[in-house]
Fold:
Amino acid sequence: MLNVKIKKLVSEAITPKYAKPGDAGMDVYAVSKNETDKYIEYGTGLAFEILEGYVMLIFPRSSVSNTDLVMANSVGVLDSGYRGELKLRFRKNGSDDYQVGDRVGQIIVLPYPAVNFEEVEDLSESIRGEGGFGSSGKN
Structure:
């Protein structure tokens, strides 16, 4: 089990938790809502200290499909050096949205490798090759 330090920035903040045993993502709750003409931003009232070598990924919950919202950055990335509030920003496509107190997203903390790119003249061959969008068929 990985221990992650968490700071409640406001008293009503809710510590993320798994909804069911075996879930990969932990639900995060809105404690504030800031709306502009372009987006709605939900504050969680939480800050995290993610260990170096790990990253927190922020996803919309599947229930977002029941709203008129689309997560603005698809998947959020909270790096180990960030100490500010976790916020989730959504684009508005209508009037249906989340309210303060609702579960607005889910988070997963994962390790990641340090990467060093090696520039080469040629790459090894593969079965897929350069096949891109739709190259594996529609089914």
